[in-house]
Amino acid sequence: MDNSYNCVICLKDLDMDNGVLTPCNHRYHSECFFKWIFKKRTCPLCRKELIAQPDIEERASLYELRRQIDWESSLYNTLRNNVDTLDNHILTKKKELENLNSQVHSRQNQLVTIIERYKGFMQSMQRNHRNRRRRGLLF
Ligand SMILES: [Zn+2]
Ligand SMILES: [Zn+2]
Q1: What is the CATH classification number for the domain harbouring 38?
Q2: From the CA of 26, which ligand is nearest?
Q3: Segment (H or E) for 19
Q4: Is residue 112 included in any domain, yes or no?
Q5: Would residue 66 count as lying in a domain?
Q6: Residue 63 CB: number of other CB atoms within 10 A?
């Protein structure tokens, strides 16, 4: 059998209706050819470049873009983590503050009670003192 009717990629017979014909007039199984072309970019027989290589500038800007995206997503993750930490921190502080507020409130109530008791005590002392003076006792 003539070699041109075999697929040089898999070396099996090639039907005219299940193959691809390259611009350089070489014929392969379409499955074989597409597997090959995504890796090699050139015709397996004559090495003609069938898919253009991205040029240096294009590759550099692709690389730059890739790097930018990586950087931005790492930045985003860092920020996201910071925000989460901050959220937790704020929540903790809020709870602490509520706790302190209720402590202050109960202290205030205690103080009011103490002051009331002290006022009562002082009033009764003054009453006693006045009574003693009225009765002619000096102290
Ligand atoms: Zn093949
Ligand atoms: Zn070719």
Answers
A1: 3.30.40.10
A2: 2
A3: strand 19-21
A4: yes
A5: no
A6: 10
Question: Which residue range forms the structural domain that includes residue 117?
Answer: 81-139
Scan for tokens 């470049």, then name that residue.
Answer: 49
- From CA 124, how far away is CA 117, in angstroms rounded? 11
Measured between alpha carbons, how far is 35 from 50 in angstroms, rounded to an integer? Answer: 13
Whether 6 is covered by a domain: the verdict is yes
Q: Ligand 2 centroid vs 75 CA: distance in angstroms?
A: 47
Tell me how many domains the chain contains: 2
The C-alpha atoms of residue 130 and residue 139 are separated, in whole angstroms, by: 10
Q: Examine residue 23 and state whether it is found in any structural domain, yes or no.
A: yes
> What's the start-to-end Cα distance of the chain, in Å?
140
For the CA of 36, the nearest ligand: 1
pLDDT digits (tens, 9 = 90+) for 55-86: 777 778 888 888 888 888 888 888 888 889 89
Round to whole Å and give the CA distance between 61 and 89. 41
Residues with CB under 5 A from ligand 2 (ion): 24, 26, 43, 45-46, 48
- Please tell me whether residues 49 and 85 are part of one structural domain: no
Q: Convert the pLDDT of each residue in 72-126 to its tens digit.
A: 888 888 888 888 989 999 999 999 999 999 999 999 999 999 999 988 888 888 8
